[in-house]
Amino acid sequence: MSNQQFLLETIKIINGIPQHLEFHNQRLNYTRQHFNSQSNTIDLKQFIVAPSTNGIYKCRVIYSNTIEDIQYSSYTDRQFKTFQTVIANDINYQFKYLNRDALNQLQAGARGADDILIIKNGFITDTSIANLAFYDDKKWITPTTPLLEGTTRARLLKQKKIIAAPIRLENIKKYSKMALMNALLGFYIIKQPIINKTG
Prior knowledge:
By secondary structure, the chain is of the alpha+beta class. It contains three helices and 13 strands.
């Protein structure tokens, strides 16, 4: 991998059991194949050792062509209600890199909000940490323009609990609810989110 650009998988462990490893394995091995043309596959189940059989933990798997490091920490839920839109037409975060400098620079523009809502070429993408879905009073819709195709988003699309469609910033007011999706938050529903638009 050029410049040893390490990648990351973040996995939730509940009472000693890593959650949804099938989807983490799929993304990890797809990424390894993309960068390193690796034909062998890695099964994270063989590497993750839960720190306890009780409680909720965050597991960070740092990898390149091989597993470089695994870190564990206790996990506490965060609360989200307010979001600041930021325009980032040139950002590229197709893979889950360990280096988050580009996202951190955008996050600096949060202006006191709980997180940012990243807009690229007029379309809604993600927050700094999660994929998104919006509820139109009939179904949950996730943007077709995520910066990163997350494992929770992939799982819910496969289960047909959400559908994908383009969502422009100017159309966001027609949705009654918003949800954040990632491995740690799961499907985090926010009723009447407060979205502060740039400009």
